Amino acid sequence: MILENKVAVIYGAGGGIGGAVARAFAREGAKTFVTGRQRASVEALAKDIVSAGGSAEAAAIDALDEQAIDQHLQSVIDKAGRVDVSFNAVGISNTKILGVPLVELDLEQFSLPIISYGTSYFLTARLAARRMLANKSGVIMTVTATHSREGIPLVGGYGPAQALKEALTRDLSAELAPHGIRVVGLRPNAMPETRTIKNAWEPRAKSTGMTWEQWQQMLAARTHGRRLMTLEEMANVAAFMASDQASGMTGTTVNLTMGRVDD
Ligand SMILES: NC(=O)c1ccc[n+]([C@@H]2O[C@H](COP(=O)([O-])OP(=O)(O)OC[C@H]3O[C@@H](n4cnc5c(N)ncnc54)[C@H](OP(=O)(O)O)[C@@H]3O)[C@@H](O)[C@H]2O)c1
Protein backbone atom coordinates (compact mmCIF):
# COMPACT_ATOMS: atom_id res chain seq x y z
CA MET A 1 0.00 0.00 0.00
CA ILE A 2 1.72 3.14 -1.24
CA LEU A 3 -0.04 5.60 1.10
CA GLU A 4 0.11 3.58 4.32
CA ASN A 5 -0.36 5.85 7.38
CA LYS A 6 -0.46 9.02 5.26
CA VAL A 7 -3.04 11.56 6.39
CA ALA A 8 -4.99 13.02 3.46
CA VAL A 9 -7.60 15.77 3.37
CA ILE A 10 -9.83 15.90 0.30
CA TYR A 11 -11.94 18.97 -0.55
CA GLY A 12 -15.00 18.57 -2.78
CA ALA A 13 -15.01 14.88 -1.87
CA GLY A 14 -18.76 14.64 -2.49
CA GLY A 15 -18.08 14.97 -6.23
CA GLY A 16 -17.04 12.46 -8.87
CA ILE A 17 -13.30 13.16 -8.85
CA GLY A 18 -12.98 13.89 -5.11
CA GLY A 19 -14.87 10.70 -4.23
CA ALA A 20 -12.78 8.52 -6.56
CA VAL A 21 -9.53 10.04 -5.25
CA ALA A 22 -10.61 9.51 -1.61
CA ARG A 23 -11.46 5.85 -2.30
CA ALA A 24 -8.09 5.29 -4.02
CA PHE A 25 -6.17 7.02 -1.21
CA ALA A 26 -7.98 4.92 1.43
CA ARG A 27 -7.44 1.71 -0.56
CA GLU A 28 -3.72 2.52 -0.54
CA GLY A 29 -3.72 2.85 3.25
CA ALA A 30 -4.24 6.59 3.84
CA LYS A 31 -6.31 7.98 6.69
CA THR A 32 -8.74 10.11 4.71
CA PHE A 33 -10.59 13.19 5.92
CA VAL A 34 -13.31 13.75 3.32
CA THR A 35 -14.91 17.17 3.18
CA GLY A 36 -17.61 18.79 1.09
CA ARG A 37 -20.28 21.43 1.16
CA GLN A 38 -23.02 18.89 1.77
CA ARG A 39 -22.62 16.69 4.84
CA ALA A 40 -24.83 13.87 3.50
CA SER A 41 -22.69 13.12 0.44
CA VAL A 42 -19.36 13.05 2.32
CA GLU A 43 -20.86 11.01 5.15
CA ALA A 44 -22.11 8.43 2.62
CA LEU A 45 -18.64 8.34 1.05
CA ALA A 46 -16.92 7.89 4.42
CA LYS A 47 -19.32 5.06 5.28
CA ASP A 48 -18.50 3.30 1.98
CA ILE A 49 -14.75 3.68 2.52
CA VAL A 50 -14.96 2.34 6.08
CA SER A 51 -17.11 -0.62 5.05
CA ALA A 52 -14.51 -1.44 2.37
CA GLY A 53 -11.90 -1.62 5.17
CA GLY A 54 -10.45 1.89 4.78
CA SER A 55 -10.19 4.86 7.09
CA ALA A 56 -12.38 7.93 6.55
CA GLU A 57 -13.91 10.71 8.54
CA ALA A 58 -16.38 13.18 7.05
CA ALA A 59 -16.88 16.89 7.69
CA ALA A 60 -19.03 19.57 6.07
CA ILE A 61 -16.53 22.23 4.97
CA ASP A 62 -17.03 25.05 2.50
CA ALA A 63 -13.69 25.16 0.68
CA LEU A 64 -14.09 28.92 0.19
CA ASP A 65 -14.34 29.59 3.93
CA GLU A 66 -10.86 30.29 5.29
CA GLN A 67 -11.82 29.90 8.93
CA ALA A 68 -13.68 26.62 8.37
CA ILE A 69 -10.75 25.12 6.42
CA ASP A 70 -8.29 26.24 9.07
CA GLN A 71 -10.31 24.91 12.01
CA HIS A 72 -10.85 21.60 10.22
CA LEU A 73 -7.12 21.22 9.52
CA GLN A 74 -6.42 21.87 13.18
CA SER A 75 -8.90 19.14 14.13
CA VAL A 76 -7.12 16.77 11.70
CA ILE A 77 -3.78 17.55 13.35
CA ASP A 78 -5.33 17.02 16.80
CA LYS A 79 -6.70 13.62 15.75
CA ALA A 80 -4.05 12.29 13.36
CA GLY A 81 -0.98 14.31 14.30
CA ARG A 82 -0.16 15.61 10.81
CA VAL A 83 -1.39 16.39 7.30
CA ASP A 84 0.52 14.69 4.50
CA VAL A 85 -1.71 15.27 1.48
CA SER A 86 -4.16 18.04 0.54
CA PHE A 87 -6.28 17.38 -2.56
CA ASN A 88 -8.62 20.10 -3.88
CA ALA A 89 -11.27 18.54 -6.14
CA VAL A 90 -13.82 21.31 -5.81
CA GLY A 91 -15.98 21.90 -8.89
CA ILE A 92 -18.42 24.74 -9.43
CA SER A 93 -21.70 24.13 -11.22
CA ASN A 94 -21.10 24.62 -14.95
CA THR A 95 -24.63 25.92 -15.53
CA LYS A 96 -23.52 29.21 -13.98
CA ILE A 97 -20.42 29.39 -16.17
CA LEU A 98 -20.80 27.85 -19.64
CA GLY A 99 -22.74 28.62 -22.80
CA VAL A 100 -22.49 32.41 -23.22
CA PRO A 101 -20.21 33.95 -25.92
CA LEU A 102 -17.41 36.05 -24.39
CA VAL A 103 -18.66 39.21 -26.11
CA GLU A 104 -22.00 38.84 -24.34
CA LEU A 105 -20.66 37.62 -21.00
CA ASP A 106 -20.97 39.97 -18.03
CA LEU A 107 -18.05 40.52 -15.67
CA GLU A 108 -19.65 38.72 -12.75
CA GLN A 109 -20.23 35.52 -14.74
CA PHE A 110 -16.73 35.71 -16.24
CA SER A 111 -15.12 36.23 -12.82
CA LEU A 112 -17.08 33.57 -10.92
CA PRO A 113 -14.95 30.54 -11.88
CA ILE A 114 -11.70 32.52 -11.73
CA ILE A 115 -12.39 33.82 -8.23
CA SER A 116 -13.94 30.60 -6.89
CA TYR A 117 -11.39 28.11 -8.24
CA GLY A 118 -8.46 30.45 -7.51
CA THR A 119 -9.62 31.26 -3.98
CA SER A 120 -10.41 27.69 -3.02
CA TYR A 121 -7.12 26.25 -4.31
CA PHE A 122 -5.11 29.10 -2.77
CA LEU A 123 -6.75 28.78 0.65
CA THR A 124 -6.63 24.99 0.92
CA ALA A 125 -3.02 24.89 -0.35
CA ARG A 126 -1.77 27.72 1.83
CA LEU A 127 -3.41 26.47 5.02
CA ALA A 128 -2.16 22.90 4.46
CA ALA A 129 1.34 24.15 3.61
CA ARG A 130 1.53 26.00 6.92
CA ARG A 131 1.06 22.65 8.72
CA MET A 132 3.31 20.69 6.33
CA LEU A 133 6.20 23.13 6.78
CA ALA A 134 6.60 21.94 10.37
CA ASN A 135 7.25 18.36 9.14
CA LYS A 136 9.25 19.45 6.07
CA SER A 137 7.07 17.06 4.08
CA GLY A 138 3.73 16.97 2.26
CA VAL A 139 1.98 16.91 -1.10
CA ILE A 140 -0.50 19.53 -2.33
CA MET A 141 -2.67 18.50 -5.24
CA THR A 142 -5.55 19.66 -7.40
CA VAL A 143 -7.33 18.87 -10.64
CA THR A 144 -7.61 21.01 -13.77
CA ALA A 145 -8.98 20.46 -17.29
CA THR A 146 -7.85 20.59 -20.92
CA HIS A 147 -9.32 24.13 -21.06
CA SER A 148 -6.10 25.38 -19.44
CA ARG A 149 -4.29 24.57 -22.69
CA GLU A 150 -6.90 24.68 -25.47
CA GLY A 151 -9.02 27.44 -26.98
CA ILE A 152 -12.61 26.28 -26.48
CA PRO A 153 -15.69 28.36 -27.30
CA LEU A 154 -18.46 29.24 -24.85
CA VAL A 155 -16.58 28.35 -21.65
CA GLY A 156 -16.42 31.89 -20.22
CA GLY A 157 -13.92 32.20 -17.36
CA TYR A 158 -13.52 28.42 -16.92
CA GLY A 159 -10.40 28.14 -19.14
CA PRO A 160 -8.61 31.08 -17.47
CA ALA A 161 -9.52 29.58 -14.06
CA GLN A 162 -7.89 26.25 -14.96
CA ALA A 163 -4.79 28.03 -16.31
CA LEU A 164 -4.62 30.04 -13.07
CA LYS A 165 -4.60 26.82 -11.02
CA GLU A 166 -1.79 25.33 -13.13
CA ALA A 167 0.26 28.52 -12.68
CA LEU A 168 -0.39 28.46 -8.92
CA THR A 169 0.78 24.83 -8.81
CA ARG A 170 4.11 25.90 -10.34
CA ASP A 171 4.51 28.92 -8.06
CA LEU A 172 3.57 27.06 -4.88
CA SER A 173 6.11 24.41 -5.78
CA ALA A 174 8.83 26.99 -6.42
CA GLU A 175 8.35 28.28 -2.87
CA LEU A 176 7.53 25.04 -1.04
CA ALA A 177 9.64 22.34 -2.68
CA PRO A 178 12.82 23.63 -0.98
CA HIS A 179 10.99 22.81 2.29
CA GLY A 180 10.11 19.24 1.27
CA ILE A 181 6.57 19.94 0.05
CA ARG A 182 5.64 18.80 -3.46
CA VAL A 183 2.86 20.44 -5.48
CA VAL A 184 1.33 18.44 -8.33
CA GLY A 185 -1.82 18.92 -10.40
CA LEU A 186 -3.73 16.43 -12.56
CA ARG A 187 -5.27 17.42 -15.90
CA PRO A 188 -7.75 14.73 -16.97
CA ASN A 189 -9.76 14.69 -20.15
CA ALA A 190 -13.55 14.29 -19.90
CA MET A 191 -14.61 11.21 -17.93
CA PRO A 192 -18.15 10.47 -19.17
CA GLU A 193 -19.19 8.52 -16.08
CA THR A 194 -19.15 11.80 -14.07
CA ARG A 195 -22.22 14.00 -13.72
CA THR A 196 -20.10 17.03 -14.69
CA ILE A 197 -19.43 15.69 -18.17
CA LYS A 198 -22.90 14.23 -18.67
CA ASN A 199 -24.60 17.47 -17.61
CA ALA A 200 -22.27 19.64 -19.71
CA TRP A 201 -22.21 17.58 -22.89
CA GLU A 202 -25.44 15.58 -23.15
CA PRO A 203 -27.56 18.66 -24.03
CA ARG A 204 -24.90 19.74 -26.59
CA ALA A 205 -25.01 16.27 -28.14
CA LYS A 206 -28.82 16.38 -28.38
CA SER A 207 -28.79 19.88 -29.91
CA THR A 208 -26.49 18.68 -32.70
CA GLY A 209 -28.63 15.59 -33.37
CA MET A 210 -26.09 13.15 -31.89
CA THR A 211 -26.77 10.50 -29.27
CA TRP A 212 -24.78 10.63 -26.01
CA GLU A 213 -22.88 7.52 -27.15
CA GLN A 214 -21.95 9.15 -30.50
CA TRP A 215 -20.79 12.26 -28.66
CA GLN A 216 -18.53 10.19 -26.38
CA GLN A 217 -17.09 8.44 -29.45
CA MET A 218 -16.34 11.83 -30.98
CA LEU A 219 -14.47 12.92 -27.81
CA ALA A 220 -12.70 9.56 -27.62
CA ALA A 221 -11.55 9.86 -31.25
CA ARG A 222 -9.37 12.83 -30.24
CA THR A 223 -7.24 10.68 -27.91
CA HIS A 224 -4.40 8.43 -29.04
CA GLY A 225 -6.10 5.36 -27.60
CA ARG A 226 -9.51 6.29 -29.11
CA ARG A 227 -11.05 5.99 -25.66
CA LEU A 228 -11.77 8.16 -22.63
CA MET A 229 -10.17 7.70 -19.24
CA THR A 230 -12.11 6.18 -16.35
CA LEU A 231 -12.39 7.75 -12.90
CA GLU A 232 -10.50 4.78 -11.49
CA GLU A 233 -7.57 5.30 -13.86
CA MET A 234 -7.40 8.99 -12.90
CA ALA A 235 -7.57 8.12 -9.17
CA ASN A 236 -4.78 5.54 -9.51
CA VAL A 237 -2.50 8.28 -10.87
CA ALA A 238 -3.61 10.59 -8.02
CA ALA A 239 -2.60 7.95 -5.45
CA PHE A 240 0.78 7.40 -7.10
CA MET A 241 1.46 11.16 -7.29
CA ALA A 242 0.54 11.56 -3.61
CA SER A 243 2.90 8.75 -2.63
CA ASP A 244 6.62 8.86 -1.89
CA GLN A 245 7.16 6.87 -5.09
CA ALA A 246 6.55 10.15 -6.96
CA SER A 247 9.14 12.03 -4.91
CA GLY A 248 10.68 13.34 -8.15
CA MET A 249 7.48 15.07 -9.29
CA THR A 250 6.72 18.66 -8.33
CA GLY A 251 5.81 21.98 -9.93
CA THR A 252 3.81 20.39 -12.72
CA THR A 253 0.37 19.27 -13.83
CA VAL A 254 0.25 15.68 -15.02
CA ASN A 255 -1.21 15.41 -18.50
CA LEU A 256 -3.97 12.78 -18.31
CA THR A 257 -5.55 13.65 -21.64
CA MET A 258 -4.33 10.42 -23.30
CA GLY A 259 -2.77 12.33 -26.18
CA ARG A 260 -5.52 14.89 -26.77
CA VAL A 261 -3.35 17.78 -25.53
CA ASP A 262 0.38 17.81 -26.31
CA ASP A 263 2.90 18.96 -23.73
N1 LIG B 1 -15.50 15.13 -14.46
C1 LIG B 1 -14.54 15.20 -15.38
O1 LIG B 1 -14.45 14.36 -16.29
C2 LIG B 1 -13.53 16.30 -15.29
C3 LIG B 1 -12.45 16.30 -16.20
C4 LIG B 1 -11.51 17.31 -16.10
C5 LIG B 1 -11.64 18.29 -15.12
N2 LIG B 1 -12.72 18.27 -14.28
C6 LIG B 1 -12.81 19.34 -13.28
O2 LIG B 1 -12.53 18.78 -11.99
C7 LIG B 1 -13.30 19.46 -10.99
C8 LIG B 1 -14.16 18.44 -10.22
O3 LIG B 1 -14.95 17.74 -11.15
P1 LIG B 1 -16.06 16.67 -10.73
O4 LIG B 1 -16.48 15.99 -11.98
O5 LIG B 1 -15.61 15.85 -9.59
O6 LIG B 1 -17.24 17.66 -10.26
P2 LIG B 1 -18.47 17.37 -9.25
O7 LIG B 1 -18.87 15.93 -9.32
O8 LIG B 1 -19.48 18.42 -9.52
O9 LIG B 1 -17.81 17.61 -7.83
C9 LIG B 1 -17.44 18.84 -7.38
C10 LIG B 1 -17.68 18.87 -5.90
O10 LIG B 1 -17.19 20.11 -5.37
C11 LIG B 1 -18.13 20.54 -4.41
N3 LIG B 1 -18.01 21.96 -4.12
C12 LIG B 1 -18.36 23.01 -4.89
N4 LIG B 1 -18.09 24.16 -4.27
C13 LIG B 1 -17.57 23.82 -3.07
C14 LIG B 1 -17.10 24.55 -1.96
N5 LIG B 1 -17.11 25.89 -1.96
N6 LIG B 1 -16.65 23.88 -0.89
C15 LIG B 1 -16.63 22.53 -0.87
N7 LIG B 1 -17.04 21.77 -1.88
C16 LIG B 1 -17.53 22.41 -2.97
C17 LIG B 1 -19.46 20.18 -5.02
O11 LIG B 1 -20.45 20.22 -4.02
P3 LIG B 1 -21.99 20.52 -4.41
O12 LIG B 1 -22.51 19.21 -4.89
O13 LIG B 1 -22.55 21.00 -3.12
O14 LIG B 1 -21.96 21.58 -5.48
C18 LIG B 1 -19.17 18.78 -5.53
O15 LIG B 1 -19.36 17.79 -4.55
C19 LIG B 1 -14.11 20.50 -11.75
O16 LIG B 1 -13.38 21.70 -11.82
C20 LIG B 1 -14.20 19.92 -13.14
O17 LIG B 1 -14.46 20.89 -14.11
C21 LIG B 1 -13.65 17.31 -14.34
Summarize the structure.
With 263 residues, the chain is an alpha/beta fold.
Q: How many individual helices?
A: 8
Provide the β-strand percentage band: 15-25%
- Which sequence of strands runs across the widest sheet? 3-2-1-4-5-6-7
N-to-C span = 31 Å
**How do the helices and strands follow one another from N- to C-terminus?**
EHEHEHEHEHEHHHE
The helical percent reads: 40-55%
Q: Specify Rg, calculated over alpha carbons.
A: 18 Å
Q: How many strand elements? A: 7
Average pLDDT level: 96
**Contiguous runs where pLDDT drops below 50 for at least 5 residues:** none
Present as ligands are: NADP nicotinamide-adenine-dinucleotide phosphate
Q: Based on CA inertia axes, which overall geometry fits?
A: globular
SSE map:
Layout lengths: L6 E5 L4 H12 L3 E6 L2 H13 L3 E6 L5 H15 L4 E4 L18 H29 L2 E6 L14 H19 L4 E8 L6 H13 L4 H9 L10 H12 L9 E5 L7
Parallel strand pairs: 1-2, 1-4, 2-3, 4-5, 5-6, 6-7
Bound molecules: NADP nicotinamide-adenine-dinucleotide phosphate.
Primary descriptors:
263 residues; alpha/beta; seven-stranded parallel beta sheet; 8 helices; 46% helix; 15% strand; globular; binds NADP nicotinamide-adenine-dinucleotide phosphate
